[in-house]
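The data layer described in this paper is built around a simple, fixed record for each protein. Because each token names a local backbone shape, the row as a whole describes the fold. We quote a single record here, exactly as it is kept in our systems:

***
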Amino acid sequence: MTRYFISFNDGDMTFPEEDFAAVGEAAHAVMAEAINAGAWVHGGGFWGYSPFVVSGDGKVTEGPLQESPVHIGGFAIVDVETDEEAFEWARKIAVSCRCSQEVRKIMDDPEQDNLMNRRQEAK
């Protein structure tokens, strides 16, 4: 299985304010479908754009790391076998959120998987 990061930019979701509840309901329906299919890892949206930057010495400053006109508005992480499956989840999310989605493959990290498995076994 491969994990994919599916995201959209802040401001991409353009619909009338009165549709907010319906969009949320549609997005939650896709989330439930992905959870039931065993594909959902995690996801969520962000309220506006107000990042903080934490440096190696622990200093916290108002962000971003680097100025950019692009700000992630929301995301989902799915774990599926093929690019096509990831694209299908992205399509469903695009319909529910009423905006296009970007799909990026997350690098496989076997050591992370080993550490997570050890944590689960220790519980």
